[in-house]
Amino acid sequence: TQSTEAVVSTQSTGANHTTTHMLNWALTRVLGAHVEQKGSKVVGEQFRFDFSNDGAVKPAQLEQIDALVSSLIEADKAVYAQVVPLETARAINGLKAVFGEKYPDPVRVVSVGVPIDELLAAPTNDWGKDASIEFCGGTHMQRSGQARAYATVGESAIAQGIRRIVGVTATEAESAHAAADELDAKIAALEARGTAPTRDERLGVEDELATTALPVWRAAKLRTRVEALNRLALAEHKKAAAAAVDTAKARLAELLAAHEAAAAPKFVVEHVPALCGSVPAARTLADGLASAGVPCAVVSTDADGKKPCVLVFACVPKALTGTLNASDWVKAAVAPFTGKGGGRPFQAQASHGSLEEGAATAAAAKEFAEKAAL
């Protein structure tokens, strides 16, 4: 007796084989009569289908193609197979055959949705409009509904003028659509806030989009929405950066007032996330304190700019550069995070990419300054 695993494997292969026929039909409907099959491979979990086409199949076209295949599956059409004399079979209008392939005579005809006798009775009808008809000797389903669901999860070029589609049926297709539904809900929740999501939230969704098997056309739509969220974050960042200089001026005024009321410190390390990694803002704060005789290093994180980083900007009064060098100071602050930078003894800047380490960067800057003989 045949094992259950073997039966399932045969059923899956049959489902995917029949679905390659339905896909071939849908490709011709959407892209045109120039589409010719160039190869296929069917396995239990998925199939690949190679075909002629100049240029990539656009997501909007894949949406139509997937919809056509899904419509045949949902209609649960009978799958018919019959051996027919080759010349008689070739006369069926809408029948798809592999160009250059040598077929036996008689040949087996497989039709999804229309009995073979009906095709033979009226061969000139436009059967290809609504039915998938091909020469084939392979394993097939009895009804199209046995495929349960379909999704194109990959589309790529394999040679000049040859494209490859990776398709899945049944559980794999259902899982791909379920994953797309889940990502759709996550993105909708981020969109509903009215403000940009954090960088980590956006990267998390982008990682899921890149690593999850999804219907290609749905992934494209989801990616467009994430790109819109990225643009929103960049716009909010630019707005915040524009206000950062005023934030720096306000903080400078607070520090100078505090220094007037008490003895000025030997140095100041300020961790100010609100400056959004703005160099002009950091310079305003650091240079303002240095002009008052106090060395200052400002640490701020640019999480949403085009080049996210943790910035360190330091200014040292020229009279004190012999004991505290601004260039050495910023380099020491970013060294634990393999950052780079430098500058002049009295003014320098450096940065690194460990965005969560702003506070630790400020601690490293403070530790270095404490060792200076100020």
Mean pLDDT: 92
SS-based class: alpha+beta
Global morphology? rod-shaped
Q: Note the total helix count.
A: 10
What share of residues is helical? 40-55%
Contiguous low-pLDDT stretches (5 residues minimum) are: 1-10
- Write down how many β-strands occur, each being a DSSP E stretch of 2 or more residues: 12
Q: State the strand order across the main sheet.
A: 8-9-10-12-11
Q: Topology as H/E string?
A: HEEHEHEHEEEHHHEHEEHEEH
Brief overview:
The chain has 374 residues and is an alpha+beta fold. It has helices at 4-31, 59-75, 86-90, 116-121, 170-192, 199-211, 216-261, 279-291, 326-334, 358-371; strands spanning 37-42, 46-52, 79-84, 107-112, 132-135, 150-159, 162-169, 268-271, 296-302, 309-315, 340-344, 347-352.
Defining key terms:
374 residues; alpha+beta; five-stranded mixed β-sheet; four-stranded antiparallel β-sheet; rod-shaped; disordered N terminus
Walk me through the topology.
Elements: H1 4-31, E1 37-42, E2 46-52, H2 59-75, E3 79-84, H3 86-90, E4 107-112, H4 116-121, E5 132-135, E6 150-159, E7 162-169, H5 170-192, H6 199-211, H7 216-261, E8 268-271, H8 279-291, E9 296-302, E10 309-315, H9 326-334, E11 340-344, E12 347-352, H10 358-371
Parallel strand pairs: 8-9
Antiparallel strand pairs: 1-2, 2-7, 3-4, 4-5, 6-7, 9-10, 10-12, 11-12
Helix pairs in contact: 1-2, 2-7, 5-7, 6-7, 7-8, 9-10
Descriptive report:
With 374 residues, the chain is an alpha+beta fold. Helix content is 47%, strand content 20%. It contains ten helices and twelve strands. The strands form three sheets. A five-stranded mixed sheet has the order 8-9-10-12-11. Residues 1-10 have low confidence and may be disordered.
